[in-house]
Design brief:
There is one protein chain. This protein is of the alpha+beta class. The strands form 3 sheets. Strands 6-5-4-3-2-1-7 form a 7-stranded mixed beta sheet, with helices on one face. A hairpin with a 2-residue loop joins strand 5 and strand 6. The longest helix has 18 residues.
């Protein structure tokens, strides 16, 4: 009997547009012989099931919908929602209370990795190399001199929570620092200010595939702009993404082993992607993405295809792992 799958998308942040694209790709590739797929869009104003150009309200009491006089109950939620409330653990807590299986990491792992500073704090204790950083909140009265006493220029300023590099800036001069902080704070309550590590940026996807933790291929990010921000990723397409990365075989093996170690140590589930910088042969962690992009040009699907796993297999496996 086919399973009813809610492909959950939308969200309450600027990443909603990317979430909708991810959901379309997931629904395109899920096996129709196994799954009845429904697009469920969450916004601050309403939760709806979108089908054939019509909208049906989601009953939050049991996460169901009634369409054409028929009540639809879901067997699993496929998480294609980037940003809040899907990537920060809030939705996972709701699903846990309902007993609804879902394809992402749980509440604790999602909340932890959504905060870049918490991720760095925990993983640095596990021996993972990280950049020097500080956090500035909207309530802080931080000055340029206070910040530069702890972090040297150039540096990166980005929201402490969130993804798609919304609100991120590379700061080279002293006069650029506070405008960059204010830009980042428009996207959240805190910004993280990190030292600039010059090197090769790479990213590695990790999944639990057929019961085993598996690092996929590694992608190298070659910049045509100063920073791999939202516009560079999705609008200007100002990057070259090379899979597999042009890195020494020893670094490749180390990165895959480290990525699987991080996945296991944090207790992650589903699909994640971990970003690094390679400097002088050493890996420095940048961040962990608990619900990576699944758009047509996203990195994780590229890595999966290179590893010999089609999108149909990848997304179907995510559902079966959640159901098991």
């Amino acid at each position: 009997m086919k399973k009813n799958i809610a492909v959950v998308t939308g969200g309450y942040s600027g990443e909603a547009v990317i979430s909708l694209q991810s959901a379309d790709q997931v629904m395109k590739h899920l096996d129709p012989a196994k799954y009845n797929c429904y697009k469920v869009i969450l916004t601050k104003d309403k939760w709806i099931l979108s089908q054939d150009g019509k909208e049906y309200s989601i009953d939050k009491n049991d996460f169901s919908a009634t369409a054409a006089g028929k009540k639809i109950k879901f067997d699993c939620a496929f998480m294609a929602l980037h940003g809040t409330p899907g990537e920060d653990g809030k939705l996972q807590g709701y699903f846990d209370m309902l007993g609804m299986p879902y394809t992402s990491s749980g509440v604790v792992q999602s909340a932890l990795t959504f905060s870049k500073s918490f991720t760095v704090a925990v993983l640095s204790k596990l021996g993972v190399n990280t950049a020097q950083s500080i956090v500035v909140s909207k309530n802080d009265k931080a000055t340029v001199d206070h910040i530069l006493a702890q972090i040297s220029l150039p540096c990166f300023v980005k929201p402490n929570e969130g993804g798609s590099s919304l609100g991120a800036s590379k700061v080279k001069g002293k006069d650029e620092l506070m405008p960059a902080v204010q830009k980042g704070l428009k996207e959240g309550e805190e910004v993280i200010i990190e030292e600039f590590i010059e090197g090769t940026e790479i990213t590695c996807g990790v999944v639990r595939y057929k019961g085993k933790i598996k690092a996929l291929a590694i992608t190298e990010i070659v910049f045509k702009t100063e920073i791999f921000d939202f516009h560079a990723k999705y609008i200007d397409k100002a990057t070259e993404e090379i899979t597999p990365a042009r890195i020494p075989i020893g670094i490749e093996a180390e990165c895959k082993n480290l990525s699987e170690y991080i996945y296991k140590s944090l207790g992650c589930k589903g699909m994640i992607r971990i970003d690094y910088i390679i400097k002088a042969g050493k890996l420095f962690l940048l961040e962990v993405n608990s619900i990576p992009g699944m758009t047509e040009r996203s990195l994780l699907p590229q890595q999966s295809r290179y590893a010999g796993i089609s999108e149909k297999e990848l997304y179907g496996n995510a559902i079966e792992e959640a159901l098991s």
